[in-house]
Design goal:
23% of the residues lie in helices and 34% in strands. The protein has 195 residues and is an alpha+beta fold. The protein is globular and about 40 Å long. The N terminus is likely disordered. Pfam families: Exo_endo_phos.
Length: 195
């Protein structure tokens, strides 16, 4: 039985089956007024002023940052945004990449960890609870020179999460897709279109 492991603020761990997806409609999300923003930062530390201005101007509920370039030497305090809970996943072992998902503190959210075969190196997944509904929010960075194995993990993750009501944001680096016609000349890009 496939599933997610949910990570709560209190440190408790529990398994949740994905056989019966949570019921949430995008209409409910719209009614809740969720505003989402996704940015490729190419180093969030160097773009703090721009991020703060964007947050002040747009007041989003959910912010996705790809290519955060964060690492273990950069503390959560340096990356945090007042009024937001931060979920981050840094690239390990080399410069670049990484993702940070900010969700307003007023929204009940918790991180979920995908099963091993879908655990992407540079992706973070959260559930947002609104009343009796749950919405899964994902943020993915797909490097242009991604390995076949990691690319398959991203595809597996998206297929698994798509069984639920979800919002998936990110920088997927599918340069051969013609988005207007949904056509592609690249094999890996064509796989993305099937999702």
């Amino acid at each position: 039985q496939g599933g997610f492991t949910e990570k709560y603020d209190n440190g408790g761990i529990g398994n949740v089956s994905t056989n019966k997806p949570a019921k949430v409609s995008l209409e409910n999300c719209t009614e809740a007024g969720y505003k989402c923003v996704c940015l490729n930062a190419r180093s969030i530390v160097n773009k703090r002023n721009e991020l703060n201005i964007m947050v002040e101007d747009t007041d989003p509920h959910i912010i996705g940052i790809t290519e955060s370039w964060a690492n273990k030497e950069i503390s959560d305090a340096e990356l945090g945004l007042p009024g937001y809970v931060m979920f981050r996943k840094d690239r390990i072992g080399r410069r670049g990449g990484g993702v940070i998902l900010y969700i307003k503190e007023s929204i009940q959210a918790y991180e979920i960890i995908l099963e091993k075969e879908a655990d992407c190196e540079e992706a973070v997944w959260c559930n947002i609870v609104t009343g009796n509904s749950t919405l899964t929010v994902g943020l993915v960075y797909r490097s242009p020179n991604i390995s076949i194995e990691d690319n398959e993990k991203i595809q597996t993750a998206i297929k698994e999460v798509s069984k639920r009501d979800c919002i998936i944001m990110g920088d997927f680096n599918h340069g051969h897709i013609q988005w207007e016609s949904l056509q592609s000349t690249g094999h890996e890009d064509q796989k993305c279109l099937v999702l």
